[in-house]
Amino acid sequence: MSGLWVFVCGPSGAGKDSVLGWAAQQLATRRDIVFARRMVTRASLPGSDHDPVTPQQFARLIGSGGLVWCWEAHGFHYGIEARYAAHVAAGKTVVVNGSRAHADGLDGEKKVRVVQIVADAEQLASRLELRGRDAPHEVTRRLARNALFSDLRADHTILNQGELADAGRQLVDYLVAGVGSSTQR
């Protein structure tokens, strides 16, 4: 049996972290679906879905083969530990909180599916302002970056405009449907 990587990506403010968190909670008892924790060169905040590493630690992980996937976004380095590849090799689905730029470069990978979470521009701007993590010029930069990915090839798209449970349920349904068993990129 062959496993699968599912890269979940979307613009800043689309609610990707919330949707992933909701889905992970719903699927916590499933042994065939694993939600990977990212290594990020950014401090961790309460509720963060990543493990913080210094740039030096990140470079050592790359140099030692400790990361199976890595990318850069918004001035930070992100990586998925190589240990998750064993789950895929064992036939499991590994869900990655990814980057659109990285996912765009994965086109044609047979063991990879891309799920894009989106929201309209007004919703994105509102959510970015509410989270208060970025200065106004950074919010503008993040929103402008969306034009770069208008043609991202996704295997599934989730519109996150309403209740979190609605978008979360769509991701759960996609993962449970056995995306790796019947679809090819």
Overview of this protein structure:
The chain has about 180 residues and is α/β, with parallel strands linked by helices. The chain has a single domain (about 5-180), classed as P-loop containing nucleotide triphosphate hydrolases (Rossmann fold), CATH 3.40.50. About 35% of the residues lie in helices and about 25% in strands. The chain contains eight helices and nine strands. A hairpin with a 2-residue loop joins strand 5 (about 65-75) and strand 6 (about 75-80). The longest helix is centred in the C-terminal third of the chain and has 13 residues, at about 165-175. The two termini are about 20 Å apart.
State the distance separating the first and last CA atoms. Answer: 18 Å
CATH superfamily: P-loop containing nucleotide triphosphate hydrolases
Q: Which residues form runs of ≥5 with pLDDT under 50? A: 180-185
**Which class do the helix and strand fractions yield?**
alpha/beta
Determine the strand fraction and express it as a percent band: 15-25%
Strand order of the largest sheet: 2-7-1-8-9
What percent of the residues sit in helical stretches (DSSP H or I)?
Answer: 25-40%
CATH architecture descriptor? 3-Layer(aba) Sandwich
Order of helices and strands: EHEEEHEEHEHEHHEHH
The tally of domains stands at 1
Number of helices: 8
Instruction: Indicate the CATH topology.
Output: Rossmann fold
